[in-house]
Amino acid sequence: MPRSLGLLDGAAIAASSTAATSSIGIGLGLMAGVVGLHLPAIMLLAFLPVLAIAGGYGRLNRSEPDAGSSYSWVGRTLNPWLGFLTGWVNTVGTVVFMAYTTTVTGSSIVQLLDEAHLRSVAGLRLDADSTVQCTLIGLVVLVAAALVAVRGLGLAARLQKALLVFEYAVLLGFCGYGLFAGDQPFSLDWFNPLTIPSFDAVAQGMVLAVFCYWGFESVFSVSEEVHDPRDASRAGTLALVVMLLLFLLAGTAFQRVLPIDELADNGAHGLTYFGARLADQPLAALPLIALMFSAVASLQSSVIPTARGLFAMGRDGVLGPVWTKLHPKHRTPAIGTLLITAVAVALALCSIVIPTVNDLISAAVNAIGIIVALYYALTAVAAAVRFRHLLRTDLMEGLRAVVGPLLGAAVLLVVGGYLTWSFYDSTDHFELSADNGWFELTVVVLMIVTGLPAAAWARWGRRSAYFLGEAAGTPEKA
């Protein structure tokens, strides 16, 4: 694959994957229902372990740029089974994300049609909270985004930069205005994590906030296509810092404009409701358009690193050679891109059984948040193990590549483990419902255990060099 990306291209892919506008538009309402008037505090609190783990990612990428990123690093440093499962849950989590983002995209399109007074088609009334309608509309966008990704990273990055400029201009304009126009009293307690009402709220809020930062590492999956691997590390860190600033601005502005019960009650429509409180039409439609652009960009920037991760797994022989087929002209993993899109389409169609968009988002976000905490922690431990010698030879680098990632991993494992226990302890029966703890845990368990037979087949059926310790030799320590 050609090296066609620079620093800003990588940052655009990372920023589009984290999808700040989508996270703000649908995530802040969910978090408000958990942590109350502490949205800025929980975003600050979650940023610290993620930033610490990002230091480990950056060092690993400098040592070994690889399209497989976490899958390759964990497998070669810790254990190939753990590495395979890291790649597997990352892929499955991203596919689940693509499935529900497809529905979010469709919902934003329906809301825009409603603003344009187009409220029915062929006698069918359009409903922005109907999972069926929104999913079917969003699938068209998903397929189009995948086809652009097949054309090459250069085109995809240019499209994402254009979408990001519009999104951020709208966010900065509306949130900046909301800081001054809002009538809710400001309090420094909003930034104080010690005043969050309970550890339950901290744990679930942290997992939701980590989910909002999730995606910065997507740039490491395209590090083989970046001119300088160090640019991938810089792009990931740059995207993280920008996300933090946007989340702090938006969380503060939302709480200045909206009473907490209104923010929590509007959930998936939080950004739209916020815009409507600050402006009349047609200006009030701008946040909704930004949300739609963010969802489109995140769909595309999700399929890009996922296809490259599967390319790396195919290259190592743990998956079939079909995942390594490159487009003859564009030199992209075209077949893998289309296959992973087809899986996301199938899952999106299955998710129609969850009746409303709000319920679908809640079920997906909590499950993915736990999965992300797990594979971030594994990658951080891999960095600490590989670079532990730096504690003797270069203390500052040792703090960044060993101590910081270990502390970040410990925090994520504690909050993820506590949230898992709280879901288990919250009910005594299984029910297909987003607020049923056993259903939430079942989703997480399925994401993990479905990887075990695939790993076993790769080990004993394919006799992959990855499992036999013959892939790419021994990684360097530098």
From TrEMBL:
<feature type="transmembrane region" description="Helical">
    <location>
        <begin position="30"/>
        <end position="57"/>
    </location>
</feature>
<dbReference type="InterPro" id="IPR002293">
    <property type="entry name" value="AA/rel_permease1"/>
</dbReference>
<dbReference type="Pfam" id="PF13520">
    <property type="entry name" value="AA_permease_2"/>
</dbReference>
<feature type="transmembrane region" description="Helical">
    <location>
        <begin position="162"/>
        <end position="181"/>
    </location>
</feature>
<dbReference type="InterPro" id="IPR050367">
    <property type="entry name" value="APC_superfamily"/>
</dbReference>
<feature type="transmembrane region" description="Helical">
    <location>
        <begin position="441"/>
        <end position="458"/>
    </location>
</feature>
<feature type="transmembrane region" description="Helical">
    <location>
        <begin position="78"/>
        <end position="100"/>
    </location>
</feature>
<feature type="transmembrane region" description="Helical">
    <location>
        <begin position="360"/>
        <end position="387"/>
    </location>
</feature>
<keyword id="KW-1133">Transmembrane helix</keyword>
<keyword id="KW-0472">Membrane</keyword>
<keyword id="KW-0812">Transmembrane</keyword>
<feature type="transmembrane region" description="Helical">
    <location>
        <begin position="130"/>
        <end position="150"/>
    </location>
</feature>
<protein>
    <submittedName>
        <fullName>APC family permease</fullName>
    </submittedName>
</protein>
<feature type="transmembrane region" description="Helical">
    <location>
        <begin position="201"/>
        <end position="223"/>
    </location>
</feature>
<feature type="transmembrane region" description="Helical">
    <location>
        <begin position="399"/>
        <end position="421"/>
    </location>
</feature>
<feature type="transmembrane region" description="Helical">
    <location>
        <begin position="283"/>
        <end position="304"/>
    </location>
</feature>
<feature type="transmembrane region" description="Helical">
    <location>
        <begin position="235"/>
        <end position="254"/>
    </location>
</feature>
<feature type="transmembrane region" description="Helical">
    <location>
        <begin position="334"/>
        <end position="354"/>
    </location>
</feature>
<keyword id="KW-1003">Cell membrane</keyword>
